[in-house]
Amino acid sequence: MKTIGIDIGTTTISAVVMDTEKRKLLASKTVPNGSFIRTEREWERIQDVKLLMKKAKEILDELILQHPDTEAIGLTGQMHGILYTDGEGRCISPLYTWQDGSGDQPEFDGESIAAQVTRKYGIFAATGFGLVTYLYHMKKGLVPEGSAAVCTISDYLGMWLTGRKSPLVHASNGASIGFYDTKNWRFREEMIIDAGMELSMLPEVTTEVKKLGTYCKIPVFVALGDNQASFLGAVGMQENVWQVNVGTGGQLSVLSEQHFEAPGIEARPFLKKKYILTGAVLCAGRAYAILEQFFQKCAVAMGLDAKEQYGVMGKLAKSAREDAGGIQVITKFKGTRVNPEVRGSISGLSEENFLPENLVLGAIQGIAREYCDIYQEIYRGTGIRAEKLIASGNGARRNEVLRDTLKKMFQAELEITAFQEEAACGAALSVLFAE
Question: Which of 45, 80, 153, 432 is the most buried (most CB within 10 A)?
């Protein structure tokens, strides 16, 4: 079976063609997202939906032309963010992305919407979660006139391609916009009503991979959240195999039949009513990039050219003692989901060990330790062991020392994912689970 998967990411839009029987990548194409819109509100992070649809269609049409025997189209994209649609299924707003800061604005007696929701209802609510953004818009009179529903960008792509007039959303995307009870697979309607939101604005949610309609006579299926699609593309339905995703930020994820949540750990809806237990590392590859900038500035201060230092850092890390000379580096430059105020630190310094090679290896170990801490939390709660790691993202793909460090800390074998566009490949594979 030949299928196409499309991923509308925050910075790029990707599409792949896969032979699902052989699990073989036949073609891929990626273009810059390039749709951010400048706004007078400095905290807003919005994108142009019309431009996103145009770019996605161009890629899709090109791949269909090259592979006219395509039998299905699967979708995925950035989670959490929302757009507004009217009663005819047309988008009437920009995409308010997961980076949108409206929910953090202390405009309500000195308190933000996210803080109010967390305090009043005792549920995790972050800025950028779609219903947090919607609640802010309601209180500020910013909901577009004629709005009938909200959905994610990949859900809207499905509507736009098939001509649907209302969104049908997989639970993986439904949960991502907030106020969702993942244990019972439903929105927390009582809280939503109490908060002052309209239930009619919620999209219809399904736990199955359902057909939305057709595009060019090809069936189009409901979109998965990008975290779930990435896991499917990298790991599939394997048990005791953990995905270590290292991008600018990162996640550690594992398949689970049991619902488990803890501070910083989410049970995200997956396929066949299973979960992906996920913990986030807010500053993964970004922490290593911050250190690279530090070395680059040191070079410039010494009269050298400003050029990339990753190659030098890799050699330094390989030459360092295995224990980094006793240096301990905490790389939480942007805090954690549980404690956003915590910051990084360097400790254990002495006259003998304060060396650049120890600093680089210490930072790598600090990044790996954040993933290992998430693993220990999930393992204590579920007993799910790490028999194997599958690493994805450029932060892992390009850093051999980080991969070796993860193997040692987890005491598990590690493989690089077979596909670089894991989310788009996962979308292409998701159609195999259609009911």
Answer: 153
In this structure, which topology does domain 236-419 adopt according to CATH? Nucleotidyltransferase; domain 5 (3.30.420)
CATH architecture of 2-222: 2-Layer Sandwich (3.30)
Locate the domains of the chain by residue range.
2-222, 236-419
0.85 exceeded by the pTM?
yes
| Residue 87 buriedness (CB in 10 A; 0-12 / 13-18 / 19+) | exposed
User: Residue 308: phi, psi to the nearest 5?
Assistant: -60, 140
- For residue 413, how many other CB atoms are within 10 A of its CB? 12
> How far is residue 208's CA from residue 202's CA, in Å, rounded to a whole number?
18
Q: Which residues contact 398 (CB under 8 A, 6 or more apart)?
A: 310
Q: Give how far Cα 388 sits from Cα of 4, 39, 59, 239, 371, Å.
A: 28, 45, 35, 10, 14
Share of the chain above pLDDT 90, in %: 87
Q: Which pLDDT score, from 0 to 100, does residue 339 have? A: 78
Render pLDDT for 138-173 as a digit per residue (tens, 0 to 9).
999 999 999 999 999 999 999 999 999 999 999 999
Output the six-digit token pair for 26. Answer: 């036949």
pLDDT at 45: 94
CA–CA separation, 98 and 60 (whole Å): 24
Helices 356-382 and 285-301, interaxial angle, to 10°?
170
Q: Is the backbone of residue 87 left (phi > 0), alpha (psi -120 to 50) or beta?
A: alpha
Q: CA 22, 23, 24, 28: dihedral to nearest 10 degrees? A: 150
**Cβ contact 271:254 at 8 Å:** no
Amino acid type, 135: L
**pLDDT confidence of residue 418:** 84
* Environment class of 244 (CB within 10 Å of its CB; exposed 0-12, middle 13-18, buried 19+): buried
Classify the phi-psi angles of 217: left when phi > 0, otherwise alpha if psi is within -120 to 50, otherwise beta.
left
Q: Is residue 323 pLDDT above 90, yes or no?
A: yes
**Dihedral angle sign, alpha carbons of residues 101, 102, 103, 106:** positive
Tell me the torsion sign for CA atoms 404, 409, 410, 412: positive
Distance CA 87, CA 103 (A): 26
Would 2-222 and 236-419 be classified into the same CATH topology?
Answer: yes
